[in-house]
Structures are given as C-alpha cells and as structure tokens.
Write a structure and sequence with these properties.
The chain is of the alpha/beta class. Helix content is 51%, strand content 8%. The chain has an 8-stranded mixed beta sheet, with helices on both faces. Helix 9 runs antiparallel to helix 10 and helix 14 crosses helix 17. The longest helix has 34 residues. The termini are far apart. The mean pLDDT is 94.
C-alpha cells in the first residue's frame, strides 16, 4: 500500500471488468479507492496500468485493504454470486468494526442477500446488496444502481453511488434506495428478466425479417436504425442496429453476425425471475418463454438433426413488406409494454409478501439511464406511477392502454403470419396471449376447475353464490360427499 496516500473512501474486492471500471468511475468522481483481488498479480497489473497516477491504492491482503480505509469502512464486493460472496464476507467480518459496511455489487440471488443482511446486522455490520446494470461501459461511465439491504447503511454510500450512477436528461441520478434486505437484488433480478424478454423479442423480429421476409443484414440494420429514432428508442435496439452492420474478415460476406453460433448462454437471473413468478402465482409468461427459448437454442445438435426430419408449412411471404415491417415495429412495441407490465406485477406481488415499500416510479427512473433495458418509454412508466402509485397493471394506464390498442391489429397480423410461415415467435406470441387473457372477463378456467373437482374433489366456487363458498359435485354418481381441502400451491 502506498504510504503517500490518505485513507481510501471505499474499498473494492474483485478486479474483473466490472470491478475495474467501477473503481475508475469512483476515482474520476473524486474518491480515493483501495482495491484487492485474490490473484494479487491483477492488483499490480491494474495499479501499474489503467490506474497508474490515480488515487487508487493497491493492496495484497484483505487485512491491508481494511487498514487502508477511512471509518466507517465501506467495502464493495464484485465477485461471482453464491459461495464466493460468503467466503469474502467471512474473511472481512473479523477485520471490521460495528457500523462498518459491506456492499455486494454482483448478481446475487435476493434470498442470499436477505440472509446476509440479517446475519451481519446481528454482528453490528451494515450490509447492502445492490444491483449494478450497464455492462462494461456503464460501470465506467455511469451504471444504473439498485441498492437495498440495511437502511442504516444508505446515508454512508448515497453520495458515492449517486455520484457514479448514470443521470437522466434532467440530471437525476439513476440510483436510489430500493428497500430493505433483498429488495435491491430482487429488483435487479426482475430487471434482468425483462432484459431476457426484450432480447428474445428483438431476436424474433430479426428472424422474421431475415427468414420470413428474406431481408439482408444491411436492410435489417436500416430498419433498426429507424426504429431507434422512434418509440423503440432503447439501448438494446441501438446495439442490435450496430451488430447487424458490423463486418470483419471472418464473417459471411463480411457480416460477423452470420458466423455467430445460434446457441444462447445464460447465467440464471432470467430463470430465477420465472421461478419466483411461479412461487407467487404471477403470469410472467413472456419472460418464461424467453428463458425457454434460450434452453431450446442450446439443443443445437438436436435441432440440426430434427431439421432434416420435421417439415414446416413450406410457404413464403407474399404481402407488402414495407407495411409488414411497420407491423413488426408495433408488435415489438406492444410486446415490450407487456414485458414491463408483467415485471411490475411480479414486483408488486413480492413487495406485498415481503413487506417492501417499493417506489415503482423511482425504479423506472433508475432504469431510465445506464442499464441494459434503458429505453425511452421508461419515462412514461414513471409518469404512470406518479399519477397512480397503486396502479395494479401498466396496461390499465391511459398512455399504455392507448399504445397497445393502436398496436394490436399489427400485433395480431405479425403473430398470424409467423404461424403461417412456421417462424417461432414464442415471446411475442406469449405477450399477445397474455394481453388477450388479461382483458378477458371470463376464461375457460371454469371447465378446468370442474375437471379438478371431477377427478380429485378439489371443489369450486359458483357464480351464483358469494365468493369464498366452496362446493363439490358428485359428477359420476359414484363419488362420496368428502371433498379435498382448498389451497393454492
């Protein structure tokens, strides 16, 4: 550790891409930062390289890191989620005093953050679990930051976090306190689930243009460039535009995208979002389909074999391409609205279950800049919750209701054409099915519940009786009067 520097304002453990860039971001905002990495050669390489001449203190042990920090000590962990986080915490706890702060900035599963917040509070140590979104560039220039955990810790990190975060056009920081215990990492998980949905829908739209309409990469690039100037203005549409135009010596006709293997990876946050939705009975259909689409893509060898055996419709598009591209824009926009509506439904359900007081408009603001799902219409989401903080579904807000109403005929033409051409659109189709189900006063679940009562005596409620009264019918004439208890799994 350099003896010429004063005590550091904050320490960071884990010098991978995100960790390094967050350190440089903090230092550029006037903070002295101490760094440590288990592989100490990374510390030396960073301090002698990108950090050279900056107010960054390299340390080779957790003891040195803690000793270099001003009190109350603030230590941010940027390591792989799961056991590695617990291992670092176990190293730090004996070195810290009551009132010191540990911050987990990785993609931890929120129940782990809940557990850690409680366990560390019993030791007098304040804990924050914060989502950080924006990738490599966001970490360096301004990410979206979603902190939760022990609220007593927030005043000690607020200035640093809001200083390094992205800012809206009005200068508002894309960072604010989310809620207690696991709330910050929960909101980041939902963010990632929405990200899965957005990416899948963009891919489906690209596939329709590529295979369905027979368009080349340059023409598709021009479409996404145009869309990024309108209602679909967003980071993911922007990078899709750039990817489609990118060329190098390795690509087919120069286009790099065409030699990228069609096998998607995932790190689990989308899966967690879908599982959590099932746990609380929320219809997160679009994000679930996006996760399963990645799973299907991973079956590459099976798909190659199946393509030689299983036949599709063998038809081609013979309509007005320009008009259909406009339909695709509207279908993607409407489906994107559904994705956010479902995500906010999940957050509302968990807020009620966990006793969190989530600021829904504030979350939209946090996602407005810096993060992967940042897009123009997040401002409209913020406005919707400003008008009605108890809004149960974004689709019921006048702005979004009108937007989907305007888009729905295009949306239906796209889903219909996809089915006719044999081009899978699982996420966009699921979004439309959800919309039709949510706006339906009567669903066929009456038959489903009758079936359950028939084979399992699970009982049912009646439309001609008060809600909450349960009935059983002896459908076969052979059953008894005993019925199953009523509960929701």
């Amino acid at each position: 550790m350099s003896s010429t520097m004063s005590k550091a304002d904050i320490g960071l453990i884990g010098l991978a891409v995100m960790g390094e860039n967050l350190v440089l971001n903090m230092e550029s905002r006037g903070h002295t930062v101490a760094v440590y990495n288990r592989t100490t050669s990374k510390v030396d390489r960073f301090v002698d390289g990108r950090a050279k001449g900056k107010k960054i203190i390299g340390t080779h042990t957790p003891e040195d890191l803690v000793a270099s920090l001003a009190s109350p000590r603030r230590v941010m962990i940027m390591v792989k989620a799961g056991k590695p986080v617990d291992m670092v915490i176990d190293q730090l706890v004996p070195l810290l005093d009551k009132g010191d702060i540990i911050i987990d900035g990785g993609n931890s599963y929120w129940p782990d953050t809940q557990r850690r917040t409680k366990d560390l509070a019993e030791k007098g140590i304040l804990y924050i679990g914060t989502g950080v979104s924006g990738g490599e560039e966001g970490a360096l220039k301004g990410p979206s930051i979603m902190p939760g955990g022990n609220p007593d810790a927030w005043p000690h990190v607020k200035e640093i976090f809001q200083g390094i975060s992205a800012k809206t056009d009005a200068g508002e920081p894309c960072c604010d306190w989310v809620g207690e215990d696991g709330a910050g990492h929960f909101v980041k998980m939902v963010h990632n689930g929405i990200e899965y949905g957005d990416m899948q829908m963009i891919c489906e739209t690209y596939d329709m243009m590529k295979r369905g309409l027979g368009m080349g990469n340059d023409d598709i690039h021009k479409v996404f460039a145009k869309w990024n100037e309108g209602v679909l203005d967003s980071y993911l549409v922007e990078i899709t535009r750039d990817i489609l135009a990118f060329q190098d010596d390795e690509g087919i006709d120069g286009y790099t995208l065409d030699v990228v293997l069609d096998k998607a990876g995932q790190k689990g946050t989308g899966k967690w979002t879908a599982i959590n939705a099932l746990d609380v009975g929320q219809p997160l259909t679009l994000i679930g389909e996006a996760v399963f689409a990645r799973c299907l893509s991973a079956l590459k060898d099976e798909r190659v074999a199946a393509s030689k055996i299983l036949n599709g419709p063998g038809t081609s598009f013979d309509g007005d391409k320009a008009a259909f591209i406009d339909d695709l824009e509207q279908a993607l926009y409407a489906s994107k609205i559904v994705s956010y509506a479902q995500g906010y439904q999940l957050m509302r359900a968990f807020a009620e279950e966990q006793g969190w007081k989530l600021n829904n408009g504030g979350i939209a603001l946090m996602w407005r800049g810096g993060c992967i799902i940042r897009s123009r219409f997040l401002g409209n989401i913020r406005d919707a919750f400003a008008k009605d903080e108890n809004l149960v579904n974004l689709l019921l807000d006048p702005f979004f209701e009108k937007a989907v109403e305007t888009a729905q005929h295009s949306w239906r033409r796209v889903v219909s054409q996809a089915a006719l051409l044999g081009i899978p659109m699982p996420a966009i189709s699921a979004a439309l099915a959800y919309y039709d189900g949510y706006r339906c006063e009567r669903l066929p679940a009456n038959l489903l519940q009758a079936q359950r009562d028939y084979f399992g005596a699970h009982t049912y409620e009646r439309t001609d009786k008060p809600r909450g009264e349960w009935f059983h019918t002896n459908w076969t004439g052979r059953g008894g009067t005993t019925s199953s208890s009523t509960y929701n799994a």
